[in-house]
Amino acid sequence: MKIGVMSDSHGRTKDFAHIVEIAAHVAFWLHAGDSNCGRDVERLRRASGKPVYSVAGNNDFLAGKSLPEDLMIETEGIKIGLVHGHRQQVKWGLHGLKEWLSDNPCQILVFGHTHEALIELWPGTLVVNPGSVGYAFFGKASFMIIDTDCRPESVELMYV
Question: Least packed by Cβ within 10 Å: which of 18, 29, 36, 115?
Fold first, then answer.
């Protein structure tokens, strides 16, 4: 099963129509936070016609409790963890993510916050960061299409 993954849109949704066209085959979307207090999640849901699961980022504080801090989704027997990453302090290394993972085991872990794409295979877990679809600090805006087979070579990093 293919899953669309994005993060850090920060209200910049001008490319959503193009993105959902490219990723029309995904079953659902994950948004790893900083979604303009959830407004971008709703725009993605309307544009794609697919379910969208999201967490709160550090800039989503006005969303209150409408967006969870973290989320665990299970599909096809695969557990997918979703966090923004600011609470795990990912800008200073991935140790906080490893701690979160030890308390929340999953086969795929998705995070954002750094605006920098990452694909790594940790013991038993595919760890991905789709970069930023809104503000690309490191090159072009990006998103990912991941597969529930949990193999790094199945991850498609897409630039817009």
Answer: 18
- Residues of the chain with confidence (pLDDT) below 70: 64
Which residues have a Cβ under 8 Å from the Cβ of 130 and sit 6 or more positions away?
Answer: 5, 6, 7, 32, 110, 112, 117, 142, 143, 144, 157
Buried b (16+ CB within 10 A) or exposed e, 27-55: ebbbbbbbbbbbebbebbbebbebebbbb
pTM (global) more than 0.85: yes
Q: How many residues does the chain have?
A: 160
Q: CB count, 10 Å around CB of 95? A: 11
75-113 pLDDT, tens digit per residue, is 999 999 999 999 999 999 999 999 999 999 999 999 999
Cα separation of 142 and 102, whole Å?
Answer: 28
User: What letters, b where the CB count within 10 A reaches 16 and e where it falls short, cover 130-144?
Assistant: bbbbbebeeeebbbb
